[in-house]
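ARCHIVE RECORD
Type: protein–small molecule complex
Small molecule: zinc ion
Source of inputs: curated submission
Record status: active
Notes field left blank by submitter.
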Amino acid sequence: MAVEMDLTGAIGAAVDRNRDATTHLLLDLVAAPSLTGREAPTALLMKRECERRGLATKSWSATAKEMAGYEMHVGEQARYRNRPNVAAVRKGAGGGRSLILNGHMDTVPVGDPALWSRDPSGEIAGGRIYGRGSCDMKGGLTTILAALDALDACGITLRGDVTVLATVGEEDGGLGALSSVLRGYRADAVVTTEPTNLRLIPAHVGSLVFRLTITGRNAHAAMRDAGVSAFEKFVPIFHDLQAFERERNETQHHPLFDQYPNKMPINVGVVHTGEWASTVPDRLVAEIRTGFLPGETMEQAQQAVIDRIMAQANQDPWLREHPPAIEWFGGQFESADTPVAEPICQAIIAAHETITGQRPDIAGMTGGADMRLFQRFGGMPSVMYGAGDAIEAHAPDESIAIDDLLTATKTVAQLLCDWCGVA
Ligand SMILES: [Zn+2]
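STRUCTURE (tokenized, with ligand):
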């Protein structure tokens, strides 16, 4: 026990001593461009940082060929070239459990710069680091490297191997994570350091996107009653989808999601209809996202949506004769669920408790993430834990508290010692 306390104390001191270097690493990462599809500058920086730490480092861009057959799981890609992923291995002495520490490099656009009061390409103020990607999730990539720095500073050799994965395309479906799995990267567990606000997230929902097309009949507005408005036919379906969302929330349960008032939102994100103010619109196309909890399969969730829309349409004489078309398109994301009893969950709970003195909150996440790909295609228990509040992600003035970043770093360093074993 005394030895363990010493190790924890040494890790904590090393992380605190490295505060400035860690802060600057995150600022460098935030300054490096990394829009989804154009991650190369950040990948080069990550590669250099991994090599500088003496890790066995490789980088590669996923190819269309290896993704053939998986488009449904990661979405269509606008491009493949020059989107390097980085994998770096800290070889263990042997005899311990291995761990993958994963983070995505890509970030969403800055949006309207006028909405930012801080520099989107990086700024420190009030103990926080601001900038696009500071929270989601260059903070997580920094956590991983800073945790390895703490082990190095303490002269710790682990028994198990640690693989750092820095991947592309998460915001768009998970191209880099899937490519890593397909190229054989495996470990006894995967921890993705997404911003979870220092909570353990062992599960996330699935999400499906579909296109709903409703057909009406054109007529001149002056003789509106001679036509059938596709828009008017859509309105009752829209209201019924809202009722469907409420019912699903009331009838479906999962212990990690019941805290959310709307755990599986249905969002009508796009509606196109009509061409001319004086013409009754004969066509409406809506693009809609629906979530589903772990426990319901993707096929079941799809069928539930189809049945609901068709039942509503059947109440309308026109729609009974001209049924709406439903087309699933883009990435259809599976849910993920790693039982809290799994050793990796228990190890994170213990490491967080060792560092902070408190048990971490445990929750599910109402959005999709790369975790599902490691679990489904790699067969690896997969969880998320990291600093930063996801509410900051994708928003103006995105930021992360430096103290939280260091807490996550200490927890991950402690986890590595506990999980992989110290030689
Ligand atoms: Zn993220």
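CURATOR ANNOTATION: Residues 104, 136-137, 170, 194 surround zinc ion (CB under 6 Å).
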